[in-house]
Amino acid sequence: DTGVSQDPRHKITKRGQNVTFRCDPISEHNRLYWYRQTLGQGPEFLTYFQNEAQLEKSRLLSDRFSAERPKGSFSTLEIQRTEQGDSAMYLCASSLVDGYTFGSGTRLTVV
Amino acid sequence: GIQVEQSPPDLILQEGANSTLRCNFSDSVNNLQWFHQNPWGQLINLFYIPSGTKQNGRLSATTVATERYSLLYISSSQTTDSGVYFCAVDDYKLSFGAGTTVTVRA
After folding, report:
1. What span, in angstroms and rounded, lies between the C-alpha atoms of A34 and A102?
2. Is A111 helix (H, G, I), strand (E, B) or coil?
3. C-alpha distances out from residue A66 to A57, A80, A107, B14, Å
4. Degrees (nearest 5) of the Cα angle A22, A28, A29?
5. d(Cα B59, Cα B19) in Å, to the nearest integer?
6. What are the backbone angles phi and psi of residue A70, rounded to the nearest 5°?
7. What is the pLDDT of residues B17-46, one digit of tens each?
8. Cα separation of the two ends of chain A
């Protein structure tokens, strides 16, 4: 197992376009999390799944954001009608019992 | 939600120096982790430490859960220790502090 994988590493998109990010967690981890990090700040929680069930969504997650985790494996995070304020690093993490492991993140730039 | 405060916000060290980073949190937590974020943005797990003391090479951490704080010690700092150090507390999801930016100068 190579850890948590995220794709793509970088994404530049025009304002108003839709983007989708993918996260592949560590295979035996049943919990998967999405975080967003802007420059100079700590990561902020967006949402998390236990297996395929989405158990919590932050109020940071507007209705333009949607996340899925079909079959409790990989997860996707989609942002519709992107805005410049969506520019950030999007981090995925997975966990089982002890501790969280983060992926390398997807850096989104909205121009 | 749980509030996490880290201090100092910035730390400049001469290579070889020792330092202590502090993390205060506002409520009881199940777990606490320290991370190092490298220049490419990867969060590297340093310690999973809900209580007690752990050591890993030149790094060690102590969490006093009853007093709601944790300390990260860096001894004999090296330039490769530069980066942002985050404390995060787990109440079924991680809540992060704002981080301490460490710069180690040769």
Report:
1. 10
2. coil
3. 10, 8, 17, 46
4. 60
5. 10
6. -65, 135
7. 999 999 999 988 888 999 999 888 889 999
8. 36
What sign for the dihedral angle of Cα A101, A105, B93, B43? positive
Mutate to test the interface with B, among A102, A104, A106, A108 (most CBs of B within 10 A): A102
SS3 for A25-74 is: CCCCCCEEEEEEECCCCCCEEEEEEECCEEEEECCCCCCCEEEECHHHCC
**A72 phi/psi in degrees, rounded to 5:** 65, 25
Q: Quick one: DSSP state of residue B15?
A: T
- Which tokens sit at A85? 């304020």
Among A37, A59, A87, most B C-beta atoms within 10 A, so best to mutate, is A37
A33-65 pLDDT, tens digit each: 999 999 989 999 999 999 999 999 998 888 999
